[in-house]
Amino acid sequence: MINDELQSRRYVVAGIISAVIVLYILRLFTIQIIDTKYKNGADSNAFLKKTQFPPRGLIYDRNHKLLVYNKPAYDIALIMREIRGLDTLAFCKALNIDKQHLINRLEEIKDRKKNPNYSSYTPQLFMTQLSSADIATIQQSMYKYPGFYIQSRTLREYTYPFAGQILGNIGEVSQHKIDNDDYYKPGDYAGRDGIEYTYEEQLRGEKGVEILLRDAKGRIKGKYENGKEDVAPKAGENLTLTLDAQLQLLAEKLLTGKLGSIVAIEPATGEILAIASSPTFNPGILVGRQRSRNYNSLLHDPTKPLMNRATQGQYSPGSAFKTLQALVCQQMGGITEHTMFACNGPQSYPVKCTHHHGSPVSLLSAVEQSCNPYFWNAFRSTMERNGYGPRNINFRTTYDEWVDRVKSFGLGEKFKDGDLYEQSRGYIPTQKFYNRVYRSEKGWRAITIRSNAIGQGEVMATPLQMANLMCAIANEGHYITPHLNKCDSMLKKIHQCKVDKKYFPVVFEGMWRVFESGTARASKIPGIDMCGKTGTADNSHGKPHAVFVGFAPRVNPKIAIAVIVENAGFGTTYAAPIFSLLVEQYLKGKITRTDLEERTINTVTNSYVQER
Amino acid sequence: MYKNVSIKYALDWTTVFYYVALIFMGWISIYGASYDFDQASIFDYSQRAGMQFIWILSAFAIAGALLLIDSRMYNFFAYFIYGFAIFLLIVTIFAPRSIAPDIKGSHSWLVFGPIRFQPAELAKVATALALSKFMSSYNYKLKNWKDLLPLGLIIFTPFALIILQNETGTALVFLAFLLMLYREGMNGIVLLIGSFAVLLFVVIIKYSIVPIQVDRGTLGMVLGMGIILVMQIGYAIFFGKNTKEALYLLLGTSVIGGITYLMNIWFYVSYNYVAIFTVVASCIYWSITELFYRYKKYWFLVLFSFGSVLFCFSADYLFENVLEPHQQVRIKELLKMESNLTGAGYNVNQSKIAIGSGGFWGKGFLNGTQTKLKYVPEQDTDFIFCTVGEEHGFWGSTLVLFVYWLLLMRLLRIAERQRDTFSRIYAYCVASILFFHLAINIGMVLGIMPVIGIPLPFFSYGGSSLWGFTILLFILLRMDAARLEQQR
User: Fold this and answer.
1) Which DSSP helix (H) or strand (E) runs through B290?
2) Looking at domain A245-299+308-602, which CATH architecture does it have?
3) In chain B, which residues have their Cβ closer than 8 Å to the Cβ of A41?
4) What is the band of A1 on the pLDDT scale with cuts at 50, 70, 90?
5) What is the pLDDT of chain B when averaged over all its residues?
6) Beta bridge partners of A124
């Protein structure tokens, strides 16, 4: 044959193969025959790793009031092989379920399509999240039902029935999360929405494990090595929020019967003091066994209580936007503090004025009186600062600068460095947008986009952004990303606005006069200098949205607030009193105008809003 | 002259018998591994064993189909098949997730509707065919550098692509071709050096965490250098016949060791550097011996020693930086450097308990408790041998190993009776691949190999691997059957 001189190597190859197989047989001989360790150990060396769930971190408000804590809850697990002679009638009665439910549930557990990890030897969850009351009956008679076990867990409990959208809730972890994070196993719970979601890793703690020994029948024989290898669960870290419980409570109360939202921020720190969205729900209803039923009903409610309007609702800011317009137009040289424009009241063209005041108007009284024609003229003179130029180039460059400065106040983008889950970005239309809408770079001019001058049309902002805008004005040109976690690292997220400090006093003065002699004078609190701006945002869903933004006190502002009541009408009538009451509560600690409070609470603008 | 011999007579029925026997035993074991109290039948298609029955039937169909193809096709199309396999591997890496989904962190599967398979299985067959074709080509010489480079590329390309798919275990299978290369004339020293490298690596890693006199060096490095010196002395005595020089070296080493120990009483002297110094000095010594006495035997030894020292230095680096953390843990667990019976060591410990509890006769079919209770993970795929060990004990496991041994010996016999180099090389490729899988898989289950997830041929659950091995084997059987056709 061929390659003869190498043919003897076949014996080496055969030798290597044989040697390995002999080695393996010897090894088998060692562990199966000689070593008794494994033989005796088999029965007792079967581990049952029992997960010990850590208590979740507690949540406090800024004054160390406990908002969210844990209460014990129980799961009922079963091991299919150990179930013997189940007295279904008594069992169902003790658990308060019907027999059909029991049968269906057992089928579901056995179905490997739904429950791929099923084994009749290992514990399977039968019912979850039972309260102490639910299991009170069965706990005493558990010995009658071999194969069923009670496992303890913790559930969330809430001190106040508020801030459902902000606090978020806890639900069974999604498959997506299980795949991406080794921490989770099927059936675990994790934060859904809000704070519980954002700070999940901080709140969840570390699971512990208890290692038990089982025999071949799956019976538990005791702890492995007396618990030497056990790991104790580590409780989650506690979280202190920036919320003020009292203010939050009032804010939600004031929105009763209305669609709308309130955001209150401390300007110096960016800490959110209250963030309310109506309709809302008691977070306690999303805990335990009633969770899925309640969740579904919330999900299908036409008033959308699950949506956090404060961060997700997008509104035209309306006249509230004029405060910013006054600043940006001054900065860009379109107007000065002393520029006057004529106002023909309702006859003005192309933008009508809804108020009655003298003419010509100065910037100061334009802010005070919310004069539309003034801001249209200011906007136009700013936009046409350098003329239009060839192919509109000068105008477009000016517009870009305007967008840039407006956006520097936190509008038009999400707060990406903040900790609020589910935000909308609002909208400040870009040059590209208009080029597309008007089909060319030349197709639009200042007059085409006049609604931007008064915060209508394409300009959109969330209540959170409006409140933040007030912070930026109160701080005279900077803001700190609004946040909910009270900690120092958040305070470092300072953003400079692109308007110089010297342009602010006139806006302060104008906003102050809104309370002194302007549109909100009815809502003035004696002894507090407040600055504010009403807004009435036209929209396609009916009556205009009532908007009110502002801050107080005028010197060293402590609180900046945005209030929006959907389809209510004038900002003066519906939103300004809410602002005023909140300021009084926060600065004075109590409300003296109880009749105003009561009246506001009882005002119903939307009869579909349910209390939950 | 061309003689058409009926495949019925020419087919090697002995091999087919072993093949069917292994598949049957595997099927029974899968049934045992996934058996449940309330499970009815071995043919229940919703269960693993029932599914395996379908895989087995389809594998038989594939086997039958392969026997109908003319054996010369493989030689003719070898490079096409190889190219196609490489193409599929690349597709698997870059294809969108809809046809190449992520499964447990690796993307090695291609999914077309209900059909999914691992191109890596095809790559094994294709590489074996391409190697056979290349090495059987006219004028090919293994010792020729010009021929060695394409040879390396044929093996390395699929290897690298499979590594990119995060299937390190499957990629390692391509190392099996070394055994075939040895048979085809590769210097045996390569296998020896390979074994020596593994030995050095184990010693360096295992003892690198053991300090000598608190901070005066590590046992790993000193032992590694010691082994190199022992090799030198052994070589000098048995191959060089220079007993005197060997004794001098031994004496010198002991003296240096002693002096270092004494010096360490008063000063700080690192044993590591002394050990390395000793090896370097010994190399100089052998070079001088060669130059002055013109022995001409030691240049290889010097080269080898230098290589080993470099390897010792890089072993730590390789371990820490090239291996992934989970691979490091598996090796540490194997070398008993750390033991975490509830973590990384859980699988192997449970598997040893399951096998050990089987005793001589086993607990009986379907009576294994360890595997039933799902303590052994992957018990119907990579850890299938546990079920055999637990339920059928020592005699059953030995029987399985014995059948594998018979099959491998038969394959070697088939290989040697081939008339053309192409089919002989292919036969060796088949034997090498099967042997590698067997050695790694059972070694892992028995706790003497690191945990590398590759299936046990014909035994483990899964269509892709069963089909892969069936194709591998039956191409060989078809070639073998054709040996009687060509009578020149």
Assistant:
1) helix B271-293
2) 3-Layer(aba) Sandwich (3.40)
3) 353, 356-357
4) very low
5) 84
6) A78
Q: Is B353 on the interface with A (CB under 8 A)?
A: yes
Interface residue B250 vs chain A (CB under 8 A)? no
Q: Chain A residue closest to B375 (CA)?
A: A46
- How far is residue A155 from each of residues A65, A289, B397, measured CA to CA in Å? 19, 11, 50
> Residue B182 and residue A81: Cβ atoms within 8 Å?
no
Measure the CA–CA gap between B176 and B181, rounded to whole angstroms: 9
Give the pLDDT of residue A431. Answer: 85
Which tens digits make up the pLDDT trace of B316-338? Answer: 788 888 787 778 887 877 777 76
Q: Measured between CA atoms, how close is B425 to chain A, in angstroms? A: 12
Count of CB atoms within 10 A of residue A296's CB? 10
- State the nearest Cα–Cα gap between A255 and chain B, in angstroms: 48
Which pLDDT score, from 0 to 100, does residue A46 have? Answer: 60
The alpha-carbon radius of gyration of chain A (Å, integer) is: 33
- On the question of pLDDT at A226 being above 80, the answer is no
Task: Give the closest-approach CA distance of B209 to chain A in angstroms.
Answer: 23
- For CATH 3.40.710.10, the residue range(s) in chain A are 245-299+308-602
pLDDT per position as a tens digit, B210-224: 787 777 778 888 888
A-B contacts at Cβ under 8 angstroms: 133
Contact A28 B389 (CB under 8 A): yes
Q: What is the pLDDT of residues A464-510, one digit of tens each?
A: 998 998 888 888 888 988 888 888 888 788 888 888 888 888 888 88
User: What is the maximum span of chain B, computed from C-alpha positions, in angstroms?
Assistant: 87
Partners of residue B439 in chain A, C-beta under 8 Å: 20
Cβ contacts of A228 on chain B, cutoff 8 Å: none
Q: Where are the beta strands (DSSP E) in A267-317?
A: 271-278
Q: Which of A7, A49, A112 sits opposite B46 (nearest CB)?
A: A112
Q: What is the distance in angstroms between the Cα of A146 and the nearest Cα belonging to chain B?
A: 17
- What residues does CATH 3.90.1310.10 cover in chain A? 49-240
Compute, in degrees rounded to 10, the torsion defined by CA atoms A595, A597, A602, A608. 170
The residue with tokens 């109360």 is A253
> What is the DSSP annotation of B45-71?
TTSHHHHHHHHHHHHHHHHHHHHHS-T
Of B185, B353, B359, the CB nearest to A6: B185
Other beta carbons less than 10 A from residue A364's beta carbon: 17
Beta bridge partners of A149: A77
Using 50, 70 and 90 to split pLDDT, how confident is the model at A214? Answer: low
Q: Looking at residues B246-252, what average pLDDT do you find?
A: 87
Phi, psi of A126, deg, nearest 5: -100, -55
Is B445 part of the contact surface with chain A (CB cutoff 8 Å)? no
Interchain pair B183, A6: CB under 8 A: yes
Q: How far is A119 from chain B (nearest CA, A)?
A: 8
For residue B408, give the nearest of A17, A29, A32 by CB distance.
A17
Tell me the per-residue pLDDT of A436-450, one tens digit each, with 9 for 90 and over: 888 887 778 777 888
Question: Quick check: B4 contacting A, CB < 8 Å?
Answer: no
Residue A529 is classified by DSSP as -
Residue B428: its chain A contacts at CB < 8 A? 13
What's the CATH class of domain A49-240?
alpha beta
Say how many C-beta atoms besides its own lie within 10 A of residue B56's C-beta.
19
Length of chain A measured in residues: 612
Task: Please give the C-alpha separations between residue B33 and each of A40, A109, B188, B387, B408, in angstroms, as whole numbers.
Answer: 21, 20, 41, 6, 26
Say what the ipTM of the complex is. Answer: 0.89
**Closest alpha carbon to A22 in B61, B421, B405, B426:** B405
How many angstroms separate the CA of residue B197 from the nearest CA in chain A? 18
- What is the C-alpha separation between A82 and B488, in angstroms, rounded? 72
Q: By three-state DSSP, how is residue A525 classified?
A: coil
